[in-house]
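Page 47, continued from p. 46.
Same chain as before, 65 aa.
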Amino acid sequence: MAVPKDLVAASATPLILSILAEGDSYGYAIIGQVKELSGGQMQWTDGMLYPVPHRLEKQGLVQPY
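Result:
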């Protein structure tokens, strides 16, 4: 069963924050973790992922290095 796009978009921020709460990570690792955690149902692209951390950085929720 495919995950609806609106659910994917709505879950992006909490998923990324949850993954980062476990430790530092980088884009492709996050994409892989999302795929693994969803049993392959959510397959993000880098184009879908990267705007989210940039937004989280502007909100002061993450710090890139």
